[in-house]
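FW: tagging you since you asked about this chain on Friday. Here's the raw sequence from the shared folder, copied in full. Didn't touch anything.
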Amino acid sequence: MLKKYKILLASIVLTIAGIIVVLGFWLFGSYFGHKQFYLGMTEHELFDAVQNFYNENEEQIQKENQNQRTLRIERLSAAFKEKYPEINVDTVKNIIENQNFGRRSSNANDKTGNPDSTDNSKKSMSRQYISSYVVRTINWNDTTLDSLKVRLTTSLKDKGMYSPFDLRLSVLPDEEHRNKQFYHQRYQDSKSKPILVDQGENLYLEVDYINPTAYLISKIAWQLIFSIVLTIALIGTFLALLTTIKKQNQLAKMRKAFVNNMTHELKTPVSTVMAAIESIQRFGAKDDKERMNKYLSISRQELEHLSDMIERVLQVDVAETNGVQLDKSWFDLNSLTEECIENAKIFAKKEVEIQKNSSGRSFNLFADQAHIKNVISNLLDNAIKYADGPVKISINLKENQNNLVLSITDNGIGIPKAYQKGVFDLFFRVPSGNIHNVKGFGLGLAYVKQIVLQHQGSINLTSEESVGSTFVIELPKEVK
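HL: got it, structure written out here
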């Protein structure tokens, strides 16, 4: 059985581990998929921000570019004049101007003079492509970067995709010198695809996210919650299954021990009665009244013992399944306790000393007198059976508002702390190897607890090995 239990445990652990691994791969795939989508959308939004910035500031940008172009022509004409003093500067300027020096080629292609053609070309520009002229003509300074950052922030917030970032100009290797490690590192660092600003200087515009993990996790929150709940549910289910199997295994062992013990206990009185009857039949005891009465008395005692054992089993079986039928009436618990003490002293085969104290004005209890008597008798019987030497029992009965509290303390062998929770379970007996010095079936305390609970009360145990045990029962005065 132990081998099967280990195999089952290993199977459950492997199953849980496999499910966690699958869920982990699923979550990581979803996370990195959202990250890739997020960086791609950022790239698109940055392209749009640059294009919109140019469109809104085109006149100013072209004016600045024209001024710069004029300055370059002036410098170039001055250089020609310095080298060739006899040359006409105005002629040089006209030649340079007629050669469209520094202008975008699209102006030369637009010979129709239609002002809408430029606008149409701007509108038809793809989101993933920005004219090199647009990027080249923008004056890339801190003011431009701040303006673009504001535009990009607004755009991302409008789409519910904002996460803190830096917009910067960076010097990066050209495409010929980039490898897989370059792109992998950029992806790991959560950076967008760079936009070439100055090819000569390898200057690129890029978005560098500070820490988008929180945003990305929020996007897979339902997947994460589902995975956690599913994992907890699976682990909880498997733990419950293992606990149930373990309890069933323990219960099966206790039932087996109970059957073996019960068989021995039932066999003893039956054998005794059979021996007595055989003696009467074979050895003429029927002619000897004194001997016959002795054998009959022994048979009666053994049959009463047998009947008592059967009754206990039946009582516990009924209590565990449907509960006992309580026949409630008013009685004095103090007087009932005195009666149980007297009976315990009479039937005890040991020297027994019982001290009883009571405090309170009324000990009237509305409950089932017969079953409460059985509860007290069971506890006293256990206290006597599990004492090595002279038995000393202390009983305290006190009134506690609407409850009555009965405590029974003995000087027995005590119960190890590891087994104190199990003593009220059906068939449970404190392990003592294969030998039980005290006869019993593990039914008494299970019956006691069931009766106390049916009376809406509670029972608690404190015990110390080689010192003794104390059982405390608290019952409401009037059980509803």
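FW: The chain is about 60% helix and 15% strand.
HL: agreed, and The beta strands are 165-171, 195-198, 203-209, 328-332, 352-359, 364-368, 391-400, 403-410, 458-464, 468-476.
FW: great, closing this out.
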